[in-house]
Design a protein that fits this description.
Layout: H1 7-25, H2 31-43
Helix pairs in contact: 1-2
Length: about 45
């Protein structure tokens, strides 16, 4: 069952992942910050 109380947080975390992929393709060094935010947030669920 889906926990809707975390919906906005899940969307924000997904967005940081997509932004990091976009920045990697543009060869922008800021991608590391967005990837760290995206990866770190996933490990908090464990």
């Amino acid at each position: 069952m889906w926990n809707w109380s975390f919906f906005q947080l899940d969307i924000l975390i997904s967005a940081t992942g997509f932004i990091s992929l976009y920045l990697i393709r543009r060869k922008n060094e800021k991608w590391k910050s967005f990837a760290f935010c995206s990866d770190y947030s996933k490990t908090n669920y464990l």
